[in-house]
Amino acid sequence: MSLLNEISSEDITPQGRPLPDGLWKVTVLNAAVKAARAGGGTYLWREYGNIFTTDGQKSVTLPDGSIFNVGNRKLFSRSTLDNANEDAVRIGNGQIKQEAVATGIVSKPGKGEKVAFTYADDMNAYTQTLIGKEVVVRTAQKVRTGPDKKPVLDDEGQPIVDAEIVQYVIPKAA
Fold it and tell me: How far apart are the first and last CA of the chain?
């Protein structure tokens, strides 16, 4: 008998808890330039995995004393490249610049200096350079919202909470 003949509730596992707020060492697994669905423009999409604490652990003790196991969780990020909304472009480009320095793809400029970002005209080349790089990120849990800015609810009526990357941590100079 095939195991696919029936599906029970035990076969369906709910989404795990989002990563706790904090610093995480991650690896860029995938990256691509994608077209935005609404409003036109493009964005840089990234998938991060191989998530560890900054000291190499796969679990952390939460403030309530419980243990949080990272498991095979993934993080995803989008940064606006071009769009009619100039603020979205400024924020997205800032995220990409921060990530490029944090991964070591671009060197950190000294005070008052500027460093060229040679990928500005070829973001597809940047995505290929980015894949496989390790970076430390700061995450924060945020309630997912829909286009109407209202919380998106799960099947039980509870708000869905995601872990979002809020900062790419630039290493201190050696």
Answer: 61
Cα separations in angstroms, 137 against 26, 98, 144, 146? 7, 11, 20, 25
Rounded mean pLDDT of 82-101? 94
pLDDT digit string, tens, across residues 47-57: 999 999 999 99
Measuring CA to CA, which residue among 36, 45, 39 is closest to residue 124? 45
Alpha helices in the chain (DSSP H): 86-102, 123-130
In terms of C-beta distances under 8 Å and separation of at least 24 residues, what long-range contacts does 2-7 make, across chains too? none
Which residues constitute the domain of residue 49?
17-169
SS3 (DSSP) at 30: strand
**150 in any annotated domain:** yes
Q: Residue 126: inside a domain, yes or no?
A: yes
Confidence of residue 3 (pLDDT cuts 50, 70, 90): low
Cβ contact 120:93 at 8 Å: no
pLDDT at 8: 55
